[in-house]
Amino acid sequence: MIRFSSDYSEGAHPKILQALIDTNMDQTGGYSEDPYCDLAKALILKALGAAEDAAAAAYGPEQARALAAGADADHPVVHFLVGGTQTNLTAILACLRPHQGVLCAPTGHINVHETGAIEACGHKVLPLPGIKEESLPYRHYGKITAEQIDQAVKAHYADGAYEHIVQPGMVYISQPTEYGTIYSLEELKAISAVCRSHGLPLFIDGARLGYALGSAQNDVTLRDLCQLADIFYIGGTKVGMLFGEAVVITNPAIAKDFRYLMKQKGGMLAKGRLLGVQFGAAFEPEGADCLYLEMGRHATSLAQKLKQGLVEAGCQLFIDSPTNQQFVVLEDSLAEEIGKEFAFEPFARYDETHGIVRFCTSWATPPEHVDSLLNRLKEL
Amino acid sequence: MIRFSSDYSEGAHPKILQALIDTNMDQTGGYSEDPYCDLAKALILKALGAAEDAAAAAYGPEQARALAAGADADHPVVHFLVGGTQTNLTAILACLRPHQGVLCAPTGHINVHETGAIEACGHKVLPLPGIKEESLPYRHYGKITAEQIDQAVKAHYADGAYEHIVQPGMVYISQPTEYGTIYSLEELKAISAVCRSHGLPLFIDGARLGYALGSAQNDVTLRDLCQLADIFYIGGTKVGMLFGEAVVITNPAIAKDFRYLMKQKGGMLAKGRLLGVQFGAAFEPEGADCLYLEMGRHATSLAQKLKQGLVEAGCQLFIDSPTNQQFVVLEDSLAEEIGKEFAFEPFARYDETHGIVRFCTSWATPPEHVDSLLNRLKEL
Amino acid sequence: MIRFSSDYSEGAHPKILQALIDTNMDQTGGYSEDPYCDLAKALILKALGAAEDAAAAAYGPEQARALAAGADADHPVVHFLVGGTQTNLTAILACLRPHQGVLCAPTGHINVHETGAIEACGHKVLPLPGIKEESLPYRHYGKITAEQIDQAVKAHYADGAYEHIVQPGMVYISQPTEYGTIYSLEELKAISAVCRSHGLPLFIDGARLGYALGSAQNDVTLRDLCQLADIFYIGGTKVGMLFGEAVVITNPAIAKDFRYLMKQKGGMLAKGRLLGVQFGAAFEPEGADCLYLEMGRHATSLAQKLKQGLVEAGCQLFIDSPTNQQFVVLEDSLAEEIGKEFAFEPFARYDETHGIVRFCTSWATPPEHVDSLLNRLKEL
Amino acid sequence: MIRFSSDYSEGAHPKILQALIDTNMDQTGGYSEDPYCDLAKALILKALGAAEDAAAAAYGPEQARALAAGADADHPVVHFLVGGTQTNLTAILACLRPHQGVLCAPTGHINVHETGAIEACGHKVLPLPGIKEESLPYRHYGKITAEQIDQAVKAHYADGAYEHIVQPGMVYISQPTEYGTIYSLEELKAISAVCRSHGLPLFIDGARLGYALGSAQNDVTLRDLCQLADIFYIGGTKVGMLFGEAVVITNPAIAKDFRYLMKQKGGMLAKGRLLGVQFGAAFEPEGADCLYLEMGRHATSLAQKLKQGLVEAGCQLFIDSPTNQQFVVLEDSLAEEIGKEFAFEPFARYDETHGIVRFCTSWATPPEHVDSLLNRLKEL
Predict the structure, then answer these.
(1) Is the domain A14-287 a CATH 3.40.640.10 member?
(2) Which of A152, C125, C158, D59 has the highest count of CB atoms within 10 angstroms of its CB?
């Protein structure tokens, strides 16, 4: 059985695993207060284009606390957490007051696949109304627009009884989205601008960020994210690490005391250095050749190859995705046949005889796996 | 610098790391729905003395759901989480209704070192009153008694206005405690009995359980815990793994839907098989020689050697601990001198010229590290 | 200015106010532990058709606690709270475990007009999908069906990853709904049956219950509610009292310790006897002539007269409501003109030149107010 | 039976009840957006010595929102809520971020008698350590000091692992305290100064504030509270109203969006004008003769008379309280005998044959009730 069912089917990229092996018996302090985390933060800051002084500074917890007060796009603060749901709920908790909710796409991960983690922190998730995927071109699936945000905020205050309604307090988007689509730089700039005009922090879920950065169609850099978002994260769990998400905060009000929230919500790993070791390995060597970006390019180029092969084999795309997730309409008997050798994820029904399924590639996908799948498709 | 400052200073035991290396590129499903987790659960169930049919059964998520309904001491359910705070809050959340609180020692980890994680779930932590460590013999430090629990529950209902007061809803203890002391089987039986007489679930925090099980003075087995607790966990983070806690549930009301709570609170690891691989390696070979127990014995025997050496060097023990944590009274200038080469943790002031400090050994401590420390002490 | 803008524009019905005046200087215990509350509970129990022994019993807090354990449709438990949002959140909190949400209509009060009060208790509100008012006959507006509930629950468990999704844990409906429509006995029986088949408690928000009971089209009695719901309330704030909601619980798991939740959430009034005095006055004399039902009939009959007049004056009904709220399409200039003398509530835009507005009658509406409005309409 | 068991045994002061009667059938908007609330707020602002422009301004919800941004000691914002627990939890929620807790006396109402209402909002209550009533002079019972607050904050940051511990985020005190004692102006100034030096909002629970203001020993005015606290309330439930607490906020960060929190937590009364009518009546006529202060003087002078009589009858005071609550040591058989005719509240055991009991006077206590009690004591 070859698995295309998710991008977290394997362990860690061999280079990242090797870094863990090499440092295994070193003794360090806990809770990410160690030299590996300091180094990884410095490497990430450089990749973000952060001011040299910030990146150059020793970057321990005391420094993090000091920097938090003055955090901004040029002096962001970096923290490491373990997984996506944990990171989402901690970040959102840091942004909102109790009467506020988070605007997002109806398909946003926080709205549909986190067992109410955000509500369990006391906050209503506010899916933007009127988003009907079926009436949109593919490239908008899973996305929201600056205009929708603007309308939602204005609609809130237009209601005379607005204190009876949850106040929009921030915006959540995913890059890439849960449908594999990506925001263009122009779209992100418009969203960021409307958020700032309404005083709403913008949070970007980057659980699969590597696969956006690695897409040939992408025009949004890490540096751009740092300028446009108040808080975002660079996902590791789905991009080559055993686990780990690197949160970047540019808004000092959110950065303040963030480690307390990490601890309270169970996101402060005792052996925090494991996160530093992994992210350190992922952001070397410095620049466009770093492993993190390389893994993203690997997965998305294979996904594009897979997509092209599926189309050539006569399959209908549900979405023309530029990243590592491909959503395809498959005839049921064909799906059953392929399913004997290849794992993929059922997504939704398309019609009585067809389903929509998802194929994922990842940093770990060997090109031969894609070839095998395409060959089997041709046979069928 | 040699570190005795905590029991999570290194990575994983070489055998556990090797298991991760060996399985790294295997493809599996996520969220602990994989063969490694199934195997690890079966091994743990055997170690718990669970009924053979339970242990023999394939132990996937569907089975877990089915078993949850009928869970009991002979048919416990096992789940894997990432870290201690996360495990504590998820377990406590599973036990309580909203108006209930958790009885514990004033020094309980949930009361003092988790940034209000339990309160953030809506529940008051109820430290038992009248516990004055200074008036107790060492071996009671950090512990509570069946009698104290009984009195607290009776006092609650004796107040006519009891609906104005948080209702005691469960009991939390740690084995070993935060002071390194351990409950005897007799003490645990009494606590379990009083909990059952009042309908209170008993939760045992086993973050360092290996170091209780490995203590020469311990008479409480894993099988006993399974009979006496409603829910407890076998800690991995502090006992030889990169991270990981194995929760054992014997009470079906708590076991029901536990995976939903794990997910909501960020405790369901995407690459859950990493937990299964590690716990699988730790519980092999079956029986008293398994790595988990072996690591516990290693750390506690070195800690006893360290304790004896400290006493011989003229140091006063603050607690005569039978496990891997040793609390010692050190003269300040002596502490400063030792601190140049050895890391340890300041715990509290003792008097104007002395402090209480903690030395930890672990599965990773080489005997030579203890020798070095004791030799340096003799020199000074 | 004559107000039709809400059904809580005045104080209390004169008979209820008189009862407060008559008892003002009596001394009683607090927190609804007093003879007035006992009497009111006994009167309500009789109106519910509860077993004579339950109603006959002295009904103090100790009895309430004892009865809670055995509560059922024939032996319900009654509690008094202050207002609607508080009652909704307390009732829902009593029904759910942390990973569960509450199914409801998208227009349900808890979903749209309580500033996230349910989410602030940790629970996601789960509006049923696919409810498109515009495609339904009037009488379904604001309502949900047994079939929708059934489908939602089955859809939850059909998803293999259901632990990643909030579990439907209960059902919330309003009688009458926020649109003034009412459930028929047949509809309620079907909803109750499907809830029981899935083990979901059914909670009925009766903030305006008197106006359903008083409707000529209503065929659902208090006794029926007691048989069909697990918990519901008889609203006082909008039906003739200064404030107050009488919660009726028939499910012992929900009834257990309910007073703790009331206290914790701020719903246990210190001078609780004010609630007993008011509900006592409202449920006298016993039977169909009791003030509570009388007030309901008064308001709904005036509302029907108003509705008829509006239609005769050429206004288009938005909903053909059988209760005290009337939703009408008004041309904007007409609305402006009427608005100089009469207050009503803007509800939504209808088209470019028309709005939908709400007129409410209540227990307090003098017939002449309706006449004045209709006369003014005729003039215009 | 004559009741001295609480200060909420009766309904409302006749003048306040009359105001409710006089306005009963007036029609107004809901949720405290009405002229009665506006007037009451203006009267309270004058009593607080607020700037004339603030008090003179029409004071509706729109104004409240506008003023919130600029709130300060000279321009405070006033809101009305229903009861004490609700007010405490809403106020504290408004002050804290999720990782923060509230410092208070161990005997603080929020710590012991609100069923975990604060924890249910996610926040740990942090009773100050080392407060041992038995070693203090009477007048300190139930109180905390500026020094204790200062030490607690410094101790928090002195711990290197402070992110693992709940951060002190505000201070809660009661005036008068739960023991009937009062803070002097000097003490309050010191507490306020230390709070401001650490950036901690100071919240004063004034559920019985009238009985502090009315005490002959009191030197703290409403105007002082406005200068010293960030948020406090003027209690009505225990001081002559059916229910109601007037919250005063001087800190703009707390004042912002406060009405959203009121609504979410069930504290926004539909018929909000009932609160305005009552507070309006209580703060007339303007100045020292206003009913609110008069009620306070009435109750405390009778309580002093009662205290003197108790001492003369040979009873031992547990506390020499200057307000309306008197705590006395009574021999058990004497208590039993008195209890046949007079209700009072058992507080704690004193020794084997004596208990501590509480007698309360209130605005409603007739002088003859005190005489009767004292006469009966003399007989016994």
Answers:
(1) yes
(2) C125
Q: Is the dihedral of CA C204, C206, C209, C215 positive or negative?
A: negative
Return the H-helix or E-strand segment holding D239. none
Mean pLDDT over all residues of chain C? 94
Chain C residues whose CB is inside 8 A of the D369 CB are none
**Which residue, among C230, C231, C229, has the nearest Cα to C245 in the 3D structure?**
C231
Neighbours of chain B (3+ CB pairs under 8 A): A, C, D
Which residues in B lie closer than 8 A to residue C99 (C-beta atoms)?
257, 260-261, 263-264
Q: What is the DSSP letter of B203?
A: E
The residue among D99, D118, D254 with the most chain A CBs within 10 A of its CB, best to mutate, is D99
Helix, strand, coil distribution of chain B in percent, nearest 5: 45, 15, 40
Residue B59: band (very low, low, confident or very high) from pLDDT cuts 50, 70, 90: low
Q: Which residues of B touch C199 (CB under 8 A)?
A: none
Kindly indicate the confidence band of residue B296, based on its pLDDT and cuts at 50, 70 and 90. Answer: very high
**Architecture of D14-288 per CATH?**
3-Layer(aba) Sandwich (3.40)
> Tens digit of pLDDT for each residue in D299-318?
999 999 999 999 999 999 99
Q: Which residues of B152-190 are buried (b: 16+ CB within 10 A; e: fewer)?
A: bbeebeeeeebbbbbbbbbbbbbbbbbbbbbbeeebbbb
Nearest CA in chain D to B101: D116
pLDDT at C54: 67
* For residues A27-41, average pLDDT: 95
Domain B14-289 class, CATH top level: alpha beta
Residues in D touching C20 (Cβ below 8 Å): 11, 17, 242
Q: The tokens of A177 are what?
A: 């989205």
Give yes or no on whether C2-8+292-379 and C14-288 have one common fold: no
CB contact at 8 A, D161 and B113: yes
Which candidate, C179, C93, C110, places its Cα nearest to that of C360?
C179
For residue B248, give the DSSP letter: E
Could A98 and C120 be called an inter-chain contact, meaning their C-beta atoms sit closer than 8 Å? Answer: yes
* Fold observed for domain D2-8+292-379: Aspartate Aminotransferase, domain 1 (3.90.1150)
Report the alpha-carbon distance of residue B111 to residue D36 in Å, rounded: 47
Whether the full predicted model's pTM is greater than 0.95, yes or no, is yes
pLDDT digits (tens, 9 = 90+) for A122-172: 999 999 976 666 666 666 789 999 999 999 999 999 877 799 999 999 999
Q: What is the pLDDT of residue A130?
A: 65
Pick from D284, D295, D286: nearest CA to D239: D295
Which of D2, D4, D5, D9 would best serve as a mutation to test chain C binding (most C beta carbons within 10 A)? D9
Looking at chain D, how many residues does it have? 380
Q: With contacts defined as CB-CB under 8 Å, which chain C residues touch B97?
A: 257
| Segments making up each domain of chain D, as ranges | 2-8+292-379, 14-288
- Facing C115 at nearest CB: one of D238, D243, D264: D264
- Report, as an integer, the average pLDDT of C311-334: 93
- From residue C139, alpha-carbon distances to B178, C175, C177, C180, C264 in Å are 63, 13, 10, 9, 38
D190 membership: H or E segment, kind and range:
helix D185-198
CB contact at 8 A, D73 and D137:
no
Does B20 contact chain D (CB < 8 Å)?
A: no
